[in-house]
Specification:
This protein is of the alpha/beta class. Helix content is 40%, strand content 18%. The chain has two domains: 135 residues, Aspartate Aminotransferase, domain 1; 215 residues, 3-Layer(aba) Sandwich (Aspartate Aminotransferase, domain 2), CATH 3.40.640.10. A seven-stranded mixed sheet has the order 2-10-9-8-7-5-6, with helices on both faces. It has a four-stranded antiparallel sheet with strand order 11-12-15-14. A two-stranded parallel sheet has the order 1-13.
Length: 372
């Protein structure tokens, strides 16, 4: 008899849940924090012509370095820093875990390396740690979704994490944390020789960035993505930091991880950055309109946002958010039910900011679902 080939798959992998992507066919899709705006028709035509001329029979060439330089200029990267590219931020998070998988020696015994991050937060921090065999340490935010300074500092002192992730702003809570607390965490992690990764995936919608402070520290990396910029389908993430650190992490990056189509799309977008800046401006304005409408809606509490999403808590018994989510989905509006993600998110939904028409449909669907 043949043995079960599943025995060759790691048991922890078999017991984990895959990253879930909701079926959005026929829906107003407001669950993935995507830019709701497409390229204007004239730019679509220009991009199509440009992509048609690419040598798809060849591996990516030195043109990828043009993208690295363009992103460095776009992000105002400090002198002495370097930039590496990933297939979205997800790949960069995995590469950081791979590069930093160095066991911690304590009392003549080796302990697995660890990754530390506030929770609730981006699920890929923990998932990438698990897949790489690292320990993930999640430190709960306060009830107001702020950093718990004492708990964060205590966890750093206890676990000596290889990497601390700080999302700025955070997903799914959409808030920016206190700068003074962030600096204390950065200093504590640096004193132990660990890395800090500031994840600025939602920077186009935030009022502040860490880019102006990053040069103060030799152990802080800054990660961004073009997904929220407006190119979620292109899959371009980038990591900036001191050249010595980036050079080492870049060694574990697969060759040709960014395709010719991807980097040419990204270069084209950066050449038309004003178009995407106008789209981000519209999203920020729509966020304000949407927040006002949510605050006037009985049955929910909406939290302030520095991102292109708004977290709302559905008031009522346990399961109220799930009921509202299902009611919205029945009305062809798809949002994200995060109520089971963490106890602090009990009865919470995450709403992506869309166009004016999409937001109006979302508010109507939510209001009707709450009255069901």
């Amino acid at each position: 008899m043949m043995k079960d080939p599943l025995q060759r798959i790691r048991q922890d992998v078999q017991s984990m849940h895959a990253y879930a992507i909701q079926d959005s066919v026929g829906m107003i899709k407001l669950d993935g924090m995507e830019n709701p705006h497409r390229l204007p028709p004239e730019l679509q035509a220009q991009l199509g012509q440009r992509l048609a001329q690419l040598a798809l029979n060849r591996y990516p060439d030195g043109r990828v370095n043009d993208l690295r330089r363009a992103l460095a200029e776009h992000a105002r990267m400090p002198e002495g820093f370097a930039l590496m590219l990933g297939n979205g931020s997800d790949e960069l998070i995995s590469l950081i875990a791979l590069a930093c998988d160095l066991p911690l020696s304590a009392a003549n015994k080796f302990q697995p390396a660890s990754i530390l991050a506030p929770v609730p937060g981006f699920v890929m921090y923990g998932m990438s740690a698990q897949l790489q065999g690292l320990k993930f340490v999640g430190v709960a935010l306060t009830a107001e979704f702020e950093l718990d300074e004492a708990a964060m500092l205590a966890a750093i002192a206890e676990h000596h994490p290889s990497v601390v992730y700080l999302a700025y702003p955070n997903n799914p809570t959409a808030n920016l944390w206190d700068d003074a607390v962030i600096e204390k965490i950065v200093q504590a992690q640096g004193a132990l020789g660990g890395l800090v990764v500031m994840d600025e995936a939602y920077q186009p919608f935030a009022s502040k960035s860490y880019i102006d402070r990053i040069a103060r520290h030799g152990h802080v990396l800054l990660m961004r993505t073009l997904s929220k910029f407006g190119l979620a389908g292109v899959r371009i993430g980038y990591l900036m930091g001191p050249q010595a650190l980036i050079s080492e992490i870049d060694k574990v990056r697969p060759p040709y991880n960014v395709s010719v189509l991807n980097y040419e799309c990204a270069l084209f977008a950066l050449e038309h950055a004003d178009v995407f800046a106008a789209q981000a401006h519209d999203i920020r304005e729509q966020r304000g309109v949407l927040l006002q409408a949510l605050q006037a809606l009985p049955g929910v509490h909406a939290y302030a946002s520095e991102s292109n999403m708004i977290l709302v808590r559905v008031l009522g018994d346990d399961g109220a958010a799930t009921k509202a989510f299902e009611g919205m989905r029945a009305r062809k509006v798809l949002v994200k039910n995060v109520s089971k993600m963490h106890p602090l998110l009990s009865n919470c939904l995450r709403l992506t900011v869309g166009t004016a028409d999409q937001n109006h449909a979302m508010i109507s669907a939510l209001g009707e679902a709450l009255r069901d």
